[in-house]
From TrEMBL:
Residues 51-144 form the Methyltransferase domain. It comes from Caproicibacterium lactatifermentans. SUPFAM superfamilies: S-adenosyl-L-methionine-dependent methyltransferases (SSF53335). GO terms for biological process: methylation. Gene3D superfamilies: Vaccinia Virus protein VP39. CDD domains: AdoMet_MTases. Keywords: Methyltransferase, Transferase. This is Methyltransferase domain-containing protein.
C-alpha cells in the first residue's frame, strides 16, 4: 500500500493525472468519470442517505454527494487529501485512517445506507478485501449497498491481457480484482462493467 507521504505528494496532481489518462482511454483510468457518475446516480436515488466514502481522495465524487444532501463520512490515508476535501464539505466527518486495518474507532457503531469506494480498494490484497467487506456489510442499514468502483476485470485472462498491453505502466503493487474468482466468496455480489479496465462491484443488504 502506498505510504502516507506518497499519497500526500500525489494529492496535488491527482485530478490532473486522472483526467489526462482518461482522455487517452488508457489503463488505469479509462472509464473513470462514468464509474463516478454511475455511483452518484445510484446513491442519489434515495432521500438524504448516510454515506461512507472509503478512500475519497480529493473529494470529486464525495462533494457532489454532499451537495446533493447526503450525510457524508469518509476515510482516507492522506492528511493532504483530507485538507483538500474538508473545506468543500465542512459538515462531513472525514477521518484519517489506514482502511487496511478496518473501520477506524472514530466511526465505530455508525451505520450507513450506502458505502462507496472509488479507485481505492486495489490497495488491499484480495484477502484484505474479503475481510473488510464482511466488516462493512455489518455496518449497512437494511437495504443498504456497498458500491466499489475500481480497476477490475471479469476474468484473470482479461486482467493478464491488460497487464501485458500496459507494459511498464502496470502497477505491480496494486491488487486488481478478478471478478470471476473473487465473487465465489460473495455470490450475492453483482458486477457492472464500465470499460476494458474498470467496473462497479455491488453488494446489497437484505431489507429484513
Amino acid at each position: 500500500m502506498r505510504n502516507e507521504q506518497g499519497f500526500d505528494e500525489w494529492a496535488e496532481t491527482y485530478d490532473e493525472s486522472v483526467s489526462k489518462n482518461e482522455q487517452e482511454e488508457s489503463y488505469p483510468f479509462a472509464g473513470y468519470h462514468t464509474v463516478l457518475q454511475t455511483i452518484y446516480k445510484t446513491v442519489t436515488t434515495g432521500k438524504a442517505p448516510a454515506v461512507l466514502d472509503i478512500g475519497f481522495g480529493t473529494g470529486v465524487l464525495t462533494k457532489k454527494l454532499y451537495d446533493a444532501g447526503c450525510r457524508i463520512s469518509g476515510i482516507d490515508f492522506s492528511r493532504k487529501m483530507i485538507d483538500t476535501a474538508q473545506p468543500k464539505m465542512p459538515k462531513a466527518t472525514l477521518v484519517q485512517a489506514d482502511f487496511s486495518k478496518g473501520v477506524p474507532p472514530q466511526l465505530a457503531g455508525q451505520t450507513y445506507d450506502d458505502i462507496i469506494s472509488t479507485y481505492a480498494f486495489h490497495h488491499l490484497t484480495d484477502e484484505q478485501k474479503a475481510v473488510f467487506l464482511r466488516e462493512l456489510l455489518q455496518t449497512l442499514n437494511p437495504g443498504g449497498r456497498i458500491l466499489i468502483g475500481d480497476v477490475m476485470f471479469p476474468t484473470d485472462k482479461e486482467r493478464q491481457a491488460c497487464r501485458e498491453k500496459s507494459g511498464s505502466t502496470w502497477d505491480e503493487n496494486e491488487h486488481y480484482l478478478d471478478i470471476a474468482s473473487f465473487t465465489k466468496q460473495f455470490p450475492e455480489a453483482s458486477f457492472h462493467r464500465i470499460s476494458f479496465c474498470a467496473g462497479i462491484l455491488t453488494f446489497t443488504k437484505d431489507e429484513k
